[in-house]
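As a warm-up, study this chain.
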Amino acid sequence: MVPTKACALTSTRNSVCFPSMRATNYIQQDRHAMKTNREKEKLDTRSKSISRPWVDEDLRDGTDHHLEEEEVDEEWQGLDENVAHVPFVAERYSEAEMIKRSRSFYELLNKRRSVRFLSDEPVPREVIDNVIRTAGTSPSGAHTEPWTFVVVQDPDLKHKIREIVEEEEEINYKKRMGDRWVNDLKRLRTNWIKEYLDTAPYLILIFKQVYGRLPNGKKKTHYYNEISVSIACGMLLAALQNAGLYTVTTTPLNCGPQLRALLQRPANEKLLLLLPVGYPKKDATVPALTRKPLEDIMVVM
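Now compare it with the structure written out below.
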């Protein structure tokens, strides 16, 4: 009888084999390998069931992470399925009217510029309310509306925001951003001094809610929260332009946690954009930039 690794004989009693220490180790290794393979197959199956067809890694917004948590976290709760559906009545225009309106809207938004020289001239609060209402009409993943618009008009609070931003921006320009980035910004004549944070009558800080809270305290998933809030920001910019107000889109690097604490925002909110809003100063200037023509940005197939 030829011993195998599963039964290497040390003695024979009534044709019963007794495994040696080496054989015992082989058996344990085989069992461990089988267990590992089973666990791997289980994980592979689970990962396939929650996989998402991401177009690009940059599009990740944590939705997949939330879905994994939801399976084991009793804090999470799904949305109410009992939503009534009602008839939709669309407003239709003639082709001539459609062309006229689309052209007029394009010409309006083509005048939009990023203005860094804003006056302290007062702006009616109702206008700010209306442009944010407009931004709130934006579509969102599963209609979760994962946005918070914080409007700051208090001069002392605006100055504290400026201090935080300028402190971090100086470090950004000198150490974090790198020579290429800083060089690319030279034509815009920007630096870490942000006077408009004091002079603009309003600062609008847009936060994305990475998850929400239901009335019962349970968490709810906010699908594609960053993409949803970004769309709302675009609608806000269009609404500001339509109202005759100007801004410059800013994304202060490394300022989010400090500004969130200053404004007493909850942990589920992350700063996405900061917009100073107002009228341009009489001596305001902007770079003489041009936009890409239609044939460079549109592909018809």
